[in-house]
Design brief:
about 325 residues; alpha/beta; Rossmann fold; eight-stranded mixed β-sheet; two-stranded antiparallel ribbon
């Protein structure tokens, strides 16, 4: 065996050892990441858990297939009515985009339970929740339903605001008295539903003044990246009175934009605006969609308690 051949064998053995060590390091790193992920798992607060002695509101399921604003679509929506509502006075209203994710007893937000607890504590007024799914077009033979979510949520227009004000709120109002005070109306969404929530209040500040936008998609999906210049060019006092957005440390980005930078570019705190902004440091997105949904929304009770009902008198029975 020549010296050259022995050198090649030694090099081959060395390479295999390096690969084994690298593989071991990757495995250990992955296990460390898994352990860290488990340790950082978001825990629901007390407001999101059923409490003994707290009256339970009623949730009813509905379908809407008579839209003029989004013609041809159909969608599911749910209405939460608190036990304290007796119809003697108009109730406050809070609308949620992607409603199915907020209305469930085992979801990431469990809003009906949060409302039960906060209304019972008089930490918020008697409020009716409306949980609206995005529209879909019924499928033809052998087809799948076509979703209309991005058109409805990401488009910068008054269409979705009109949809709520001309169709959904009047329909819910047939059986429940709803306030028409914009300070008593709130709207919430995540991602595309988050920019949609802001757009509703931006287009109709006379109708909605409270916004929660979790990881709002202020990116170039359907023009959301234009908001910085739109806000700067618009007269003061047009804006929503309260706006809350989730802080994020994510690197979520694509060809249409970078989500954190898109939010930071908004001139929320410019002297020309009238937007009262609060960042939520506990609502931090770290990785995949299910984690950031839960991470953003797990503090739903704290958000509503401290922000949406800001500057409102909650001691009275109704708003």
């Amino acid at each position: 065996m020549t010296a050259s051949f022995r050198s090649r064998i030694a090099l081959s053995r060395c390479s295999r050892n390096v690969l084994r060590i690298t593989s071991l390091l990757v495995t250990l790193t992955y296990l460390s990441f898994v352990q860290q992920t488990v340790a950082e798992e978001y825990v629901l607060g007390a407001d999101s858990l059923k409490q003994e002695g707290v009256p339970t509101g009623r949730v009813t399921a509905h379908t809407w297939n008579k839209s003029d604003v989004f013609a041809g679509t159909e969608r599911d929506y749910w209405v939460y009515v608190p036990a304290q509502y007796d119809g003697s006075e108009p109730a406050c209203v809070m609308v949620f985009q992607d409603g199915a994710g907020y209305v469930g007893d085992n979801g990431h937000s469990r809003v009906p339970t949060v409302f039960d607890n906060l209304i019972h504590q008089k930490a918020m007024p008697v409020t009716i929740g409306i949980f609206v799914n995005p529209g879909r077009f019924p499928p033809g033979s052998g087809e799948r339903p076509r979703r209309n979510r991005s058109v409805e949520y990401d488009t910068l227009s008054d269409a979705y605001a009109r949809f709520l004000l001309e169709e959904i709120l009047p329909e819910v109002g047939k059986e429940n008295k709803l306030t028409d005070d914009p300070e008593g109306r709130a709207i919430c969404g995540i991602s595309s539903g988050g920019i949609c929530a802001f757009t509703v209040a931006w287009e109709r500040p006379d109708a909605f003044r409270k916004v929660i936008s979790y990881v709002g998609s202020f990116t170039d999906i359907r023009g959301g990246h234009n908001y910085p210049s739109l806000i700067r060019r618009t007269e003061k006092n047009r804006f929503v009175s309260s706006y809350k957005t989730a802080k994020t440390t994510s690197t979520l980005r694509s060809g249409i934009g970078h989500w954190p930078i898109a939010k930071w570019r908004q001139p929320w705190n410019s002297p020309i605006t009238n937007i009262d902004l609060k960042w939520e440091p506990k609502a931090t997105m770290r990785s995949t969609a299910p984690r950031y949904s839960r991470g953003c929304c797990v503090g739903c009770g704290e958000t509503i308690r401290a922000w949406i009902m800001l500057n409102r008198t909650v001691a009275s029975k109704h708003c």
